[in-house]
Amino acid sequence: MKKEIQQLVDKGEMLPLMEEFYTIQGEGFHKGTAAYFIRVGGCDVGCHWCDVKESWNANLHPPTLITNIVENAKKHSDTIVITGGEPLTWDMTPLTTQLKAEGLQVHIETSGAYKLTGIWDWICLSPKKMKLPTKEVYDNAHELKVIIYNKDDFRFAEEQAEKVNNDCILYLQPEWSKRDKVVPEIVDYVMKNPKWKVSLQTHKYLNIP
């Protein structure tokens, strides 16, 4: 990467853009609502069940000026979701500042593993065992979404619930490839522990991106 471009990426004025698309939010608190998704490349958290592993290597995705990203986003929706990869790999303040200047609602989906940058109307924290969130993300998260792959993930979920703020909404979501096995376990767990809610990847059931 050219030095000048790398400097812009380091400052958050360019980002490795993997894809951007207008769709229906499929998960968590805002499921069923229209949103414009901006998927940023780059992630070293390394979840073995990640369904977007092609996002991990930032070098595969072209550095894109955030002014261009914002121009596209504002044409489609009032709600913008920044996802990845792990978006907090990069400085999110320049991008979110421009999006907010356009009067847009700005959400993030993050593992919380890096410094919290950016201006957010909604923070969806999906923590991973391999790289735990920072205290700042725990303190500011609006929803906690723990992916359930096996029984130990229920223990992990309770550990994470102890660390988030009192207003944070708690979700358990089945890992897609294990859904037939873990959905009954999640349903049973939520009925016994009603502070939790069930989150499903409804966009996959609807067969939309």
TrEMBL record:
Residues covered by the Radical SAM core domain: 30-209
Keyword Iron-sulfur belongs to the record: yes
Enzyme Commission code: 4.3.99.3
Keywords, comma-separated and alphabetical: 4Fe-4S, Iron, Iron-sulfur, Lyase, Magnesium, Metal-binding, Queuosine biosynthesis, S-adenosyl-L-methionine
Molecular function per GO: 4 iron, 4 sulfur cluster binding; carbon-nitrogen lyase activity; magnesium ion binding; S-adenosyl-L-methionine binding
Binding site for substrate: 24-26, 39, 83, 209
Chain positions recorded as S-adenosyl-L-methionine binding sites: 49-51, 85, 126-128
Cofactor entry: S-adenosyl-L-methionine; Mg(2+); [4Fe-4S] cluster
Residues the record lists as binding [4Fe-4S] cluster: 43, 47, 50
First-level EC class: lyase
Entry-linked Gene3D superfamilies: Aldolase class I
Annotated protein name in UniProt: 7-carboxy-7-deazaguanine synthase
Name of the gene: queE
